[in-house]
Each structure stands twice: as C-alpha cells, then as structure tokens.
Amino acid sequence: MSCIIGASIRSASNFGSCSFARLTRICLLKAADTLWQQIAAMKTIVPIGVIVLVAFGIFAVLSLMQRESTNKLIQADASGFFQEKKQEAELARRSNPEPISQRPVVSGPSWLDPIQNAIEDCWRAIKSIGHRNRPQPPPQPRLAPPGVYFTLTYLSVRNRSGITNLYPGTRVICVKDEGPVLLVKEGKIEFEAERQYFTNDLAVAGLAVKNDAEAQQQVASYIAQQQQAIEQRDDKRKTPPLGQH
Description:
By secondary structure, the chain is an alpha+beta fold. It folds into two domains: about 1-95; about 150-240, no CATH class. Helices cover about 60% and strands about 15% of the residues. The protein has four helices and seven strands; from the N terminus they run H-H-E-E-E-E-E-E-E-H-H. The strands form two sheets. It has a five-stranded antiparallel beta sheet, with helices on one face. The longest helix is centred in the first third of the chain and has 94 residues, at about 1-95. It starts with a helix and ends in a 7-residue tail after the last helix.
C-alpha cells in the first residue's frame, strides 16, 4: 500500500514539474516573439529615418551650393553693371568736359519743424507788438497849392460897395505875405487879415466848413497854435543876436 502511495506521489510530482516547465517555456517563447517583433519593427523604422536624414542633408547641401552660385552670379553681374556704368560716365565726361550739375538735396520735414515754426511765430508777434508800441510819426498834412489859403472863421470885409461877408472855408489867393498879416484877394476884393485866420492845410479847411462843436473846437485850437507860433517868430525876430546891441 505504501508503495502505491509513493508511486502516486512521484507520478504527481513528475507531472507537476513537467507542466511548470512547459508553461515556463511557452511564456518565454511568447516573450521572445514579442521582443523579436518589436526589434523587427524598429529595424524597419531605423532605415527609413536614416534615409530621411540623408535626403534632408543632401537637399541642404544642394540648396547651399545653389545659393552660393547665385550670389556669385549676382556679384559678377553687379560688377559688370557697375563697370559698364563707370565706362559710360567716363565716356560722357570726356565728351562733355563741363561738370554735371547736381540736384540740390532737400531735406524732408523733421520733428524740429513745428518747434521752429512756433519760435518764428512768437518772434513775429513780438516784432508786431514792438511796432505797435513804437510812436508813429504824425501824418504829413495835405497842403493846398502855393499861394492858396482858406479862411478859418467868419470875416467881414469893408469895400467901396459896402461890407462883404466871407464864410469859413472861403478860398483866397495870397497877394503879399507880410509875416503876421496876409494881403489876400477873393475875386475882386483885396483885404488884409491876421495870418492865424488862414490855413493852407486842406484837413483844417474841411473842419472849418463844418458846423458841429467838435470841429469848431479843433479849428479854435489850431488858430491858437498858429497865433502862438507867430508870436514866437516875432520875438525871435525882435531879439538881437548875441554880441550885438
């Protein structure tokens, strides 16, 4: 009996060991197959990558060579072009010895233009203010022709036929200038009157014709100035020079 049990145990042990070994071998075979499949796939990808890299390198080398050859052609062409233009300029200079006038270079607008314009505007404004503040010379009077005067006030002149009234602004002709007194003629009438009552200034004669108070006041002021000027001239005339008695 014991022999039978021992044989059964040995047979079971041998079966178990055989099954384990077989299972292990199967697993190793599957693992090896998977590894070899991956290696085979990598063997396919690697050559493709190498081919692509080689093709890219060849393309880059060809492009570089083509660029260098193009640059050389451009440089050679440019050198020939400039050489040709140089020869043409030399021939033109020999045929026409006069120098070729160059166009003036005009600079474009810059950021300084607004500042410069503002400075010029300020300077013009300052000059205009100075001209306005500068005292202007008095305007030159408009004078009548030589020997022609106008009365500034109402005058009554005695003559053979009676009394003739002359109104302000009446035109008279000077017959004789006696300094403070003028001998004048109006038509056929000759008479003498003090100089301050006559004027050859056309603007003052125009004021004398007006009847408004402002114009009459200006005429009165003009008569007073004329009288004062006449008196000053008389005083100078009467005063003897220094050293004479």
